[in-house]
Design a protein that fits this description.
8-stranded mixed β-sheet; 10 strands; about 20% strand; alpha/beta
């Protein structure tokens, strides 16, 4: 089992687009679960399983966790490929976000422990919220084996990347494998190049007007015949996730608030 989380502290950087396309590629090789934590946007669900209902989604399960001994009743929809399944976010996001860290951690533990026993790879798309203020993300991060920070070469996005990078390394033991994907890169020299990627990779996804246009509608860019550079980048990220699995055995990390 291996949990890869795509995260950005700033919206609009292409995080969900990369997560959906990478989950699609991984599912051609392994049984893969794509978890859509994006709330009302449901970007990952729209790309991978447009008809997937939102009832009994992730937040609904966290809002009303099963009794001891009961199985987690999570909606999981089949994707286009046999190896791909998608878990929608559900409708109870707002009340779940009001839980404190300890309540959130207990409920996230129940959910993730059940899922990591079933799927070799889990790809998580998490919305752009600040990790220092989000107890659900703090709890989820304890189960993450591979954190993929998605950024664009603009200052606000880079600032959020640096803060999240420092927060995770400071508060989690052991820390996850960390990788950086710089999306819509056009050759700028930016300070994320100086960040280390412990056990992970640093990939630059070239700016592509065709891919950017496709991102406005729910279509998988990986299936775009003209998007060769983007397809190559997605395959490199998928390969990097597979390689990172060899570097870290799945375990629940210790979160140390300070």
């Amino acid at each position: 089992m291996h949990v890869a989380l795509f995260y950005s502290g700033k919206g609009g950087v292409g995080k969900s687009t990369l997560a959906a396309n990478v989950a699609y590629v991984l599912s051609t090789r392994y049984q893969t679960l794509a978890m859509d934590w994006s709330g009302a946007d449901r970007t990952l669900s729209a790309l991978l399983a447009p008809g997937c209902p939102n009832e009994d989604g992730i937040y609904d399960v966290l809002f009303a966790p099963p009794e001891a001994g009961d199985k987690t009743k999570l909606t999981v929809c089949g994707g286009e490929l046999p190896g791909l399944q998608i878990a929608p976010p559900g409708d109870m996001e707002a009340p779940v976000l009001k839980l404190d860290f300890y309540a959130a951690a207990q409920r996230v533990d129940l959910l993730m422990n059940a899922l990591t026993r079933r799927y070799p790879f889990i790809v998580v798309d998490y919305p752009s919220r600040q990790i220092q203020f989000d107890p659900v993300l703090q709890a989820l991060m304890r189960h993450v084996d591979h954190l993929i920070l998605v950024t664009q070469p603009i200052q606000t996005s880079l600032n959020e990347l640096k803060y999240t990078y420092d927060f995770v390394l400071r508060h989690y033991r052991p820390p996850p494998v960390i990788s950086i994907a710089t999306n819509m890169w056009t050759g700028e020299k930016t300070y994320e190049e100086g960040l280390k990627t412990p056990g992970g990779f640093h990939i630059k996804v070239k700016a592509d007007p065709t891919v950017y246009a496709l991102g406005r509608v729910p279509k998988l860019q990986y299936k775009c015949a003209e998007c060769k550079d983007f397809r190559r980048a997605v395959e490199q990220i998928a390969d990097g996730i597979i390689q990172a699995k060899l570097a870290r055995r799945h375990q629940v990390a210790v979160f140390s608030p300070s």
